[in-house]
Amino acid sequence: MISNINFVSKFKKANLTSIIIFILSIFLIFFKGLNYGIDFKGGTLIELRAENNINVSIIRDTLNTMNLGDINVKKFGNDSDFLIKVEQKNSNDNNLIPEIKKKLNENLNSKIDFRRVENVGPKVSAELLESSVIAISLALAAMLFYIWVRFEWQFSIGSIIALFHDVVITLGIFSFLSLEINLSIIAAVLTIVGYSMNDTVVIYDRIRENLLKYNKVSISDIANLSINETLARTIITSITTLLALFSIYILGGEILRGFSFAMILGVMIGTYSSIFVASPILKFFKVSYKTLEKKEEKIVP
Amino acid sequence: MLNFSKINIILIYLIFILISTFSIFNFLNNENSFIKKKVNLGLDLQGGSYLLLEINSDSLVKEKIQSKVIPIKKLLKENNLNFSAFKIGEKKLSLKIDDLEKFELIFFSKKDNSVNPFIDSYRSYELDYNKLGNNNIEILFSKFGLLTINNAALKQSIEIVRRRIDDVGTKEPTILQRGEKRILVELPGLKDPERIKKLLGKTAKLNFRLVADNNEFGVDELISETGEKLKISKRIVMSGENLVDAQPSIQNQRGEPTVSFTLDRLGAQKFGRTTTDNVGKRLAIVLDGNIISAPNINEPITSGNGMISGNFTFQEATDLALLLRSGALPTPLKVVEERTVGPDLGEDSIKSGLTSLIIGFILVILFMFYKYKIFGLVANTALVANLLMLIGTLTILEATLTLPGIAGIILTVGMAVDANVLIFERIKEELKTEKSTIHAFDQGYSKAKITVLDANITTLIAAIILFAFGSGPVKGFAITLGIGIVTTLFTAYFLARHLTSLIVLKKNNKEIKI
To answer: Quick one: A128 and A73 in the same domain?
Structure first.
């Protein structure tokens, strides 16, 4: 059964909400900032597992005696696993890691297994940040171009605004919750770009088809019809994707948790934006069958 | 869309079987079999160390410009060019020349110009000069001269790094050039990279220099291993380049670990001459500007064999011997990025990755069956086929599977059904208006085709960009995501469509519900 929900009537409220959250997100990103991990900030990360029961404060106290600068220690997953992050104070010190290891081995009353050790120098982290920004910008530009080729410029603008909306709000939520931004979060953001685009394209495709089919009907009604016609698919695909993602989030281990959380957020926001951001923009541009006419021969293969 | 020729059907299943068969090789112990392809596990899954090293050619440039001083002065004198105010700077030489035109003619001559050679591959001279006004100039390396120095240093560094790592004997190391200044080293299975880091952190420039009793050649004041302040002659008697072998050994009398070395012919001659002329004096053994030891020359050593002692532990002696055997690095190396994963974390990651894959897979399959019943089975068959083909393709490419890569597979599972959902939903719509069931299915497939393509190409674009810009584990994610899209399109549009056609044609145009 094809649903018949009046989405268009909710556009105004939804857009207002989107704009508020979008602006809030920008404020958060600029003023609260993003919690960059060592990939982008440089520094040292150590994941360790202790055999005996120890608590966070012993580790913190031990490291504080070493005068390492900003230190962050927290439990990681279960009770015996800990994650230590040390800000890069002295970038040239290749002895830092063995010294930390030695000190911890001496001071903690337990056998310690160093499960993961990462160290990213300031130059490399700056480069990683730069290439991540380039990658996301390039992905957005590529999408813009693809939609422009396949559809019309109005569609292209609509989809890119929806993508911006998704990326900015996802990062805004990460800023709000002070969640770490690392390389795998960037991978998640790029995948969100792909997924959200995918969702938008399905609706746009239908809008284009319906515009040509019912050329007397207004864009509002066309958008409403198209969203309803594709709604079942939108929901089912979101559900299967979310099933897979929740499976990673819950069972995939601590390392994938941030990644899967970002993806879950992104899939939800992306699904919402295809309906409530990408479609209203076509209405704003007063897209009609005439918009498509010039290119009609090209579009329908 | 529902009619398949026999050739088509055979082709579809042949491709499917061919590719998916490869996925099985990962679970066989195929050491001896004909095909040895397997998916490689990334360092984050099998454990190991990743090091990114950077060379710094500044000191080399300084050295090289200094080595130009005498040849340039000689060149100027030979050509009767008057010069004054000759100064040696960090990376350039400055001087005043009376006849600049003539200088330029000589300085940039392609013939027999050993001072400023023309580099054919770059079509540029090694050196360049800037006019500072008032006939003052500065001579410095040209852009391509610097590049040549840098590239030669990088190439040589990679070679030395390879020798040192091979000598330590880690299994299957990967050593690659990354950009213009960096070397990537991957050491699977290595739990603690500290020893390797220490070995790579030393340039290991070895010199034999006499402890000076006058200032004839200039001296360096260095602290010896015993804390003694020694004046060491700047003149190098012999350097590490003359070593052909070095081995750790135990000195019999005291059981002290030492390094014994063997010199080449030229080295043996030099060493023999020096030790003969200087019996009773002390010879300092200097490594990277530090004195290892400064023993007395008791008697001439002409055999070309010698020994270095210096309060070593056996491990230190072993490492020093290794460094001397492998030769000196042209510039110091700095570790600019390091990632080490212990083997049990890798194992845990594989376990949790596989668990979430299996559970995610089951959830999606159950949901699709609940939603589409018999066609859910079609979609699920396509999904299983998709997974087999995805792993098969990864095997054929011998791609590296990382933890994010596993996440990419799970995500593919979740998103792959989208193609079939799009098609099924479209057929549902068509069924409402079409009287002929077969026709409705046919229409559903052809109308959904463009949408499916458009939708998947966008994700493919994201995957390609991620592959181009991502590093390490993230690249693994991009690979599985990208290949997943291709296999998804294949299984949805060929396998699932064929299975659907079998069902529809069997029902012979009777009403079918999706």
So the answer is: no
Q: Tell me the residue length of chain A.
A: 301
Same domain, A105 and A182: no
B-chain residues within 8 Å CB-CB of A230? 425
Contact with chain B for residue A160, Cβ under 8 A: no
Do A107 and A213 belong to one domain?
Answer: no
- A94-122 burial code (b ≥16 CB/10 A, e <16): bebbeebbeebeeebebebbbbbbbbbbe
ipTM of predicted assembly, 2 dp: 0.90
Residues A107 and A139 in one domain: no
Confidence at residue A301, expressed as pLDDT on a 0 to 100 scale: 47
Q: B173 is written with which tokens?
A: 């190391």
Q: At what angle do helices B473-490 and B343-396 cross, to 10 degrees?
A: 40
B49-54+148-201 — its CATH code? 3.30.70.3220
Mean pLDDT across A76-102: 81
Measured CA to CA in angstroms, residue B415 lies from A120, A264, B381 at distances of: 34, 13, 15
Provide Rg for chain B, Cα atoms.
35
Q: Considering the domain B206-329 in this protein, what is its CATH number?
A: 3.30.1360.200
**CATH class of domain segment(s) B6-45+343-507:** mainly alpha
Report the share of chain B in percent with pLDDT over 90. Answer: 39
Same domain, A178 and A268: yes
Both A59 and A85 in a single domain? yes
- CATH number for the domain including A169? 1.20.1640.10
Which candidate from A194, A241, A252 shows the least CB-CB separation from B352? Answer: A252
* pLDDT digits 0-9 by tens, B34-67: 667 888 899 999 999 999 999 998 888 988 888 8
Comparison of pLDDT for B471 and A283, the residue scoring more: A283
Closest CA to B100 of B136, B139, B140: B136
Q: Which of residues 269-308 of B touch A (CB under 8 A)?
A: none
Q: What is the CA radius of gyration of chain A?
A: 24
The closest alpha carbon to A195, from B392, B400, B408, belongs to B408
